[in-house]
Amino acid sequence: MGVLTFDGLNLSDGVNYFPLLGLDPGTDDLTFDEYRGYTGNVTIANVSSAHIAQVTLPLDCRATSEAAMLALVAAVNAKVAACTVAAPKTLVIGGSSYSILPSPQQVPVIDGLYVVNIARMTWVLNRLP
Hints:
With 129 residues, the protein is mostly beta strands.
């Protein structure tokens, strides 16, 4: 995969952040209207890919203490919270850049990984096509 950054935050550093399988930048699905043409054939018009797509971003946030792990999650959530329609933030996956819009933040689940200071998180981010 290579580079994975969100508004300058390195999410693939191999120290604190570890991308997981299932990373999906989403697809730019085409929408269109179908009309019956004057010859009786179906005609396609108003073709657009201008709707919002979703990026699935699964990460492990690993640290040496619970407080440090929660700080790593908070850092990603802060980037998500800073996204606005007027000023989207940039998510870079490999060589592709995506403009991220307001999206839900995540809270770690207390499970077997949590007790060893690993937060397994999945952010679903809204992006422009």
